[in-house]
Amino acid sequence: xxxxxxxxxxxxxxxxxxxxxxxxxxxxxxxxxxxxxxxxxxxxxxxxxxxxxxxxxxxxxxxxxxxxxxxxxxxxxxxxxxxxxxxxxxx
Amino acid sequence: xxxxxxxxxxxxxxxxxxxxxxxxxxxxxxxxxxxxxxxxxxxxxxxxxxxxxxxxxxxxxxxxxxxxxxxxxxxxxxxxxxxxxxxxxxxxxxxxxxxxxxxxxxxxxxxxxxxxxxxxxxxxxxxxxxxxxxxxxxxxxxxxxxxxxxxxxxxxxxxxxxxxxxxxxxxxxxxxxxxxxxxxxxxxxxxxxxxxxxxxxxxxxxxxxxxxxxxxxxxxxxxxxxxxxxxxxxxxxxxxxxxxxxxxxxxxxxxxxxxxxxxxxxxxxxxxxxxxxxxxxxxxxxxxxxxxxxxxxxx
Amino acid sequence: xxxxxxxxxxxxxxxxxxxxxxxxxxxxxxxxxxxxxxxxxxxxxxxxxxxxxxxxxxxxxxxxxxxxxxxxxxxxxxxxxxxxxxxxxxxxxxxxxxxxxxxxxxxxxxxxxxxxxxxxxxxxxxxxxxxxxxxxxxxxxxxxxxxxxxxxxxxxxxxxxxxxxxxxxxxxxxxxxxxxxxxxxxxxxxxxxxxxxxxxxxxxxxxxxxxxxxxxxxxxxxxxxxxxxxxxxxxxxxxxxxxxxxxxxxxxxxxxxxxxxxxxxxxxxxxxxxxxxxxxxxxxxxxxxxxxxxxxxxxxxxxxxxxxxxxxxxxxxxxxxxxxxxxxxxxxxxxxxxxxxxxxxxxxxxxxxxxxxxxxxxxxxxxxxxxxxxxxxxxxxxxxxxxxxxxxxxxxxxxxxxxxxxxxxxxxxxxxxxxxxxxxxxxxxxxxxxxxxxxxxxxxxxxxxxxxxxxxxxxxxxxxxxxxxxxxxxxxxxxxxxx
Lengths: 91, 299, 483
Description:
The complex is a heterotrimer of chains A (91), B (299) and C (483). By secondary structure, chain A is mainly alpha-helical. Chain A has helices at 2-24, 28-48, 58-90, and strands at residues 51-52, 55-56.
């Protein structure tokens, strides 16, 4: 029970940290990193609430897995755009 | 004992993440991110989600880290435009308050446990014994289909934006012995993860990521140059996943009358077939997301 | 194979085909869009005859499995997407996607990028409209986010790429807020399907989940004050892309907000009130931005912000769907009319810019050019956006104001009327300059030559007009719900 509380706090902390960084920093790579940290925080909240009597619920695990794959796709797209934007700024 | 471990782990995750987001050095940030990702994978194991831990380590920390490193080399140096301290302080307070409210909301939530009973009731008829695979490829296979469509959409976007293809440089003498061990191991582990995913933690996504890792080692080590022809094959393979999954879904509908309802008793074979196609396709898609998608000449 | 599954899988498979054969992508694109329109029509007729349908995917009932929900509102949204989509698709074929003298190679590569993106957008939106599960909605939004950003980045200019990056990172932040809401909902009630939404209005922790869901959706719908990414994205994209983005993509998020509001019932009043306030703010802010805009495309993009505000206001004041049926239907009708009018407007603006060579508002009246079909299309679309009879925009606003007057909610009525007056003001900036006749036009002035852009823009604008006359049909459709 208390170990869940630890992960809930960690998850919320990561969400807060990521939102703070998103609101205060303009750098593109750091925004991508903050969004990834935000996703990890949300995943931690999902899985921390998924423990019922010692077994971890399978459906949130599937949610988090789907979320990880979706996130890597969007991260790749974001980075491709960032590289083109930054590259063009040089010209 | 385990409580102390959890505390240390979460403190480690939080501070690594904070360091990642606060560092000036780009490469340092990315390395911090990969370390945080591995610690997070450990925490998934502690929370009883080994499937997710495998995926997090391979995709979340591994592939994302590779993508970030590739970009950190190409983006201009950090000229941080950070808001003034007063603004930051207010935002920090709001963020901390939000995090606190969030933690309180999740902790006090009563959380009726609906899914576990439903899953265990239906697990026997799903064709596999690993509940996560059952959810991903049978109970909520529609989510997984749309997820493959997300990867596909990202690939189209990457093709349009067309970042530069990574050009491998000679990495030194140890590369060949390293590749000789790692690449076959990746291929073997991928097949193993795919096969065993039906009953123990594993599955198409983890296998695909493993295979992608091996392919990237081949490419970055200079053993398989990213020629246009090779990458076109990769592009075709990437498209196969979504096509096969959609056609299988429609095929199942033709056979049984409902979308994604596998005919009685054959669920296991449908799932394995779809997963095999998905593994190869996901490996290709992840590689192409890293290398960039080839633009075929249009004339 | 049922029409519901094909509505999503046909466009997705066609998108794969178009991506695999870039040279022949139109051959996948047009037929697939047309077929999807036919399927949407078929589904609508089915719903009108037999009532709303629910299909459990894979035979697994909710909450474990995912359910397709095909009721009147979903059918209307599907028709809207296919209808606007097919006209815009026609535009994209003969016009290419880039309205300049770009060489055929560039146009070819743009077409090769456009069709897979448009088909994937169509598939994702259909999946969104038919979905009955919150996590499934999240995944569909991720597809939609990527394809919409792709449409923004299609033109390849530096501003478009920068706008695309900001759009995608804002979209991801919105999706993650939505996912956070789903996580909180899961921890509070143990399930994430749409039927469970009424349970989310009961206690404070659950309402936080609801607030997070709506916040994430508000970012994706470009609702003030979370709209910061939108004007740049919609104004720097190619006209065909802007048409799709403003007319259709933002409607996805608005639709989900509407759906949650309908399901949520009486307990959601606080969230609805916040929506109404944000909507009113958006109407005023968007109008202010449009009045100050110097470029046509920026004006149209700011007008979208104002119209989204109006739709959000309509959802916010609609109240509990069990008590007042009329008002949320006004929101749906406003979404429909805005889609046609805004698509017409962006295509018309593209044509105007093509003829004039620029899109500065101050330079719109030229001596040697008479107004052409594109300017008329813009004017007709403006009529629908302002809400004058007999357009569908008028019917929507009239339903809304009528319902509000019946409740005695005078402040909201006043706000809507102010918003209407402001939209008339900023739209007449353009219309008055475009349609000026009189002595200053040179004797040798000519009409611009007709092109597909004129036809499609006129077609869309006239549809917005005609929809008002035929508005009984959408309204009957909207009455068909699952309950």
